[in-house]
From TrEMBL:
Lineage of source species: Bacteria, Bacillati, Actinomycetota, Actinomycetes, Streptosporangiales
Database matches in InterPro entries: Enolase-ppase_E1 (IPR023943), HAD-like_sf (IPR036412), HAD_sf (IPR023214)
CDD domains: HAD_EP (cd01629)
Enzyme Commission code(s) on record: 3.1.3.77
Subunit field text: Monomer.
Name the UniProt record assigns to this protein: Enolase-phosphatase E1
UniProt remark on cofactor binding: Binds 1 Mg(2+) ion per subunit.
Main function: Bifunctional enzyme that catalyzes the enolization of 2,3-diketo-5-methylthiopentyl-1-phosphate (DK-MTP-1-P) into the intermediate 2-hydroxy-3-keto-5-methylthiopentenyl-1-phosphate (HK-MTPenyl-1-P), which is then dephosphorylated to form the acireductone 1,2-dihydroxy-3-keto-5-methylthiopentene (DHK-MTPene).
Amino acid sequence: MTTSWIVLDIEGTTSSTASVHVGLYAYARPRLGRWIDEHGDNPEVRAAVAQVGLPPGAATEEVVKVLHEWMDGDVKATPLKTLQGQIWAAGFAAGELTAHFFPDVPPALRAWRAAGRHLAVFSSGAVSSQRPWFRHGAEGDLSALIERHFDTVNAGPKREAASYARIAEALGDPGASGEPPLFLSDVPAELDAAAAAGWRTTGVRRPGEPSENADFGTHPVITSFEELR
Ligand SMILES: CSCCC(=O)C(=O)COP(=O)(O)O
Ligand SMILES: [Mg+2]
């Protein structure tokens, strides 16, 4: 393995889908309405509410109805992710949330950093929630291992090659090793987009996760980060 930058997806890759859908979604769901009402002077909140796409002046409960529908369908819409990210960041700060990582992940991240690899995250989850996620794992604070964070706001949609080109430019691709970044994800369409941007890719097929029966096509596949060490 000579790739300098390793870029990680979160849900289904470093962490279980249940930890996001049951843990985080359940925390954000009943708090969205009050968060919008109490942070109406926050420009990010105002912009997110406008991006939901309802007519100006729509009642908070109408906005929340759309956000809940997106959550039910696991639509990774940027305004939803922005609001969820703020609520989760507050939840982590209050000690009410804990992150989950598959057991192979913390030792692999430490080993990769010790070996001189650089680590970044590209997730649909907002950067505002990625940072506390890596800080509040049950296995301790992993946040210092992650040097760069990307989401659908600062990079773009995860299924578009242009997003990966943007990230590569931000990382200084091809980097010191001369190798393009390596992207690890449980979603074949994301890997396709990364490959189209010239990245190296590896699918992560974890037992019991939605990716268990996914068709990764020609992408190399692992079931644990240990297989990359
Ligand atoms: C604290 S990370 C939040 C994760 C999240 O909201 C999400 O949608 C994860 O999607 P991913 O792109 O990492 O599969
Ligand atoms: Mg994922």
